[in-house]
């Protein structure tokens, strides 16, 4: 029994239907995979203009402690980023790790700019991992730090080079943010938390509002000529071209942040001192390297190499597999990422992909196929 | 004047004498969405009715293409290598996949005509 009647709906569900979306089940929600324009057009629109994404299925939750340092330290026990170093209004990307150093989930943490919210950190986690994450956090947080989930909010991403101009018309303060900064204020008269962040490789914003304001906010932003609604299909191709990991595919409970090439997200102090669940493996791998590593994989032909495609060395040894792969509309050809035995992850190493029984040439590449366009 | 037949796997085959041209239907192309890669058999290959005879990939997924009829492949649409989007633009025109020399015209009896195919698509919902 997993029919459509069991699926949850986001506050924008009715709007998606009105916009003619093709709906699919995703992480327990009935979500738009594409609108009538199609995935390629939506993808290119986001790279060239401004795309609006409903990401309300993602989990929004507060960590609440008596003061900033207590809450940040509590989170530092569970994830390897430097949370103590967060300035007010700053965001960090990190991962919850299990005792074996595998990734329970990857998530965003915001320290609110508002001093009245001292002691609070806002977390945004993956939809499919909400229940696991919340249970893990509740089990491991100290008694003086609690988790408050927010079930009655929506999250809307506005992404692309024109996102700033669009949002500025309704929120003149928005352009003042740099990448990975957040603020609270009004957008079109609606109370909102907004941040300069996203999952496309483009400049853009993510906006959290009360569920009751979600449709009005989405309609307001969609009324701007630069903005078009974008579904999960293009969200996936955009993040893939940008080299960003998708939980459950590119990272999971067996992969460590070192194997996943996410070392940049581990604080320098944390690398020296450890002190987080999973540190034993992470520190060992930082010192000694890993047997496999996530890398971009550029197929040299036209055929897409999908998730699960086996990767071989030039000498025919099986060295790994593709974890995400498909067609990159901006690249205009196939793009992929996956895990390969080190050192075959070195840039430009010749690789062979076995697609439907046929060997296809490829090479190891940066996973960032389309340069990031963040406003730092 | 060619006659067009359809399969339950959403291929079409246009028959003109003993030459048959194969492609996927407008309904299939619409359902797949943006088509980004097409793999056809090669000229000289023999395909069998109902057997895999290529792949069509959209942004989302790869799907097999089955041969509507048996025969020897005499031409393939090489333009699709560079412009697979032709399948979305003109699935029954420039988006054809390959052409073959019909081995057994009696196989056509197992296929649907346009009216039957339309009813079949409607019944699939």
Could you please describe the fold and organization of this structure?
The complex is a heterodimer of chains A (376) and B (125). With 376 residues, chain A is an alpha+beta fold. Chain A contains 9 helices and 19 strands. In chain A, β10 and β11 form a beta hairpin. Chain B is an alpha+beta fold and 125 residues long. Chain B has a single domain (3-119), classed as RNA polymerase II/Efflux pump adaptor protein, barrel-sandwich hybrid domain (OB fold (Dihydrolipoamide Acetyltransferase, E2P), Beta Barrel). Chain B contains 4 helices and 9 strands. At the A-B interface, α2 of A face β4 of B.
CATH class of chain B: Mainly Beta
Determine the N-to-C terminus distance of chain B. Answer: 32 Å
Please estimate the helix content of chain B: 10-25%
CATH class of the domain at 4-56 and 152-241 in chain A: Alpha Beta
Q: Which superfamily, in CATH terms, is the homologous superfamily of chain B?
A: RNA polymerase II/Efflux pump adaptor protein, barrel-sandwich hybrid domain
- Pairing-aware structural class of the strands and helices of chain A? alpha+beta
Query: What is the count of helical runs of chain B?
Result: 4
Q: Please tell me what the overall shape of chain A is.
A: globular
Number of strands of chain B: 9
Radius of gyration of chain A: 21 Å
Choose one word for the global shape of chain B. Answer: globular
Mean pLDDT of chain B: 96
- Order of helices and strands of chain B, N to C? EEEHEEEEEHHEH
CATH architectural label of chain B: Beta Barrel
Low-confidence stretches of chain B: none
The fourth-level CATH homologous superfamily of the domain at 4-56 and 152-241 in chain A is Probable tRNA modification gtpase trme, domain 1
Distance between the termini of chain A: 47 Å
The side-by-side strand order for the widest beta sheet of chain B comes to 1-2-3-9-8-5
Helix content of chain A: 10-25%
Q: How much strand content do the residues of chain A show?
A: 25-35%
Q: Low-confidence spans of chain A: pLDDT under 50, at least 5 residues?
A: none
């Amino acid at each position: 029994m997993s029919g459509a009647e069991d699926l949850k709906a986001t506050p924008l569900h009715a709007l998606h239907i009105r916009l003619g979306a093709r709906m699919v089940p995703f992480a327990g929600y009935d979500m738009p995979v594409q609108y009538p324009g199609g995935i390629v057009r939506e993808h290119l629109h986001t790279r060239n203009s401004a795309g609006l994404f409903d990401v309300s299925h993602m989990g929004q939750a507060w960590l609440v402690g008596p003061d900033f340092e207590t809450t940040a330290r509590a989170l530092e026990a569970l994830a390897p980023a430097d949370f103590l170093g967060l300035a007010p209004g700053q965001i960090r990307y990190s991962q919850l790790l299990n005792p074996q150093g595998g990734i329970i989930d990857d998530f965003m943490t915001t320290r609110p700019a508002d001093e009245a919210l001292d002691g609070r950190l806002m977390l945004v986690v993956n939809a499919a991992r909400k229940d696991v994450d919340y249970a893990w956090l509740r089990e491991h947080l100290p008694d003086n730090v609690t988790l408050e989930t927010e079930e009655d909010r929506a999250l809307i991403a506005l992404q692309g080079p024109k996102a700033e101009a669009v949002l500025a018309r309704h929120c003149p303060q928005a352009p003042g943010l740099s990448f990975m900064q957040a603020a609270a204020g009004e957008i079109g008269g609606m109370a909102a938390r907004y941040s300069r962040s996203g999952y496309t490789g483009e400049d853009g914003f993510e906006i959290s509002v009360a569920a009751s304001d979600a449709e009005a906010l989405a309609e307001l932003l969609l009324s701007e000529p630069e903005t078009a609604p974008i579904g999960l299909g293009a969200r996936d191709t955009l993040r893939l071209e940008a080299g960003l990991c998708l939980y459950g595919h590119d990272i999971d409970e067996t992969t460590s942040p070192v194997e996943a090439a996410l070392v940049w997200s581990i604080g320098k102090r944390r690398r020296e001192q450890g002190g987080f669940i999973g540190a034993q493996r992470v520190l060992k791998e930082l010192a000694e390297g890993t047997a496999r590593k996530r890398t971009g994989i550029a197929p040299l032909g036209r055929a897409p190499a999908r998730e699960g495609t086996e990767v071989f060395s030039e000498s025919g040894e099986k060295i790994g597999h593709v974890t995400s792969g498909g067609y990159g509309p901006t690249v205009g050809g196939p793009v992929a990422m996956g895990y390969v035995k080190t050192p075959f992850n070195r840039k430009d190493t010749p690789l062979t992909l076995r697609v439907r029984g046929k060997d296809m040439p490829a090479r190891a590449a940066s996973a960032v196929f389309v340069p990031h366009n963040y406003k730092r | 004047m060619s006659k067009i037949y359809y399969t339950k796997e959403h291929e079409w085959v246009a028959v003109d004498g003993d030459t048959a041209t194969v492609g996927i239907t407008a309904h299939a192309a619409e359902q797949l969405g943006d088509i980004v890669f097409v793999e056809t058999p090669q000229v000289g290959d023999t395909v069998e009715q109902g057997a895999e005879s290529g792949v069509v990939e959209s942004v989302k997924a790869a799907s097999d293409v089955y041969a509507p009829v048996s025969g020897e492949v005499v031409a393939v649409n090489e333009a699709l290598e560079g412009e697979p989007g032709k399948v979305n633009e003109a699935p029954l025109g420039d988006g054809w996949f390959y052409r073959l020399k019909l081995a057994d015209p009696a196989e056509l009896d197992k296929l649907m005509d346009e009216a039957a195919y339309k009813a079949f698509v409607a019944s699939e919902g």
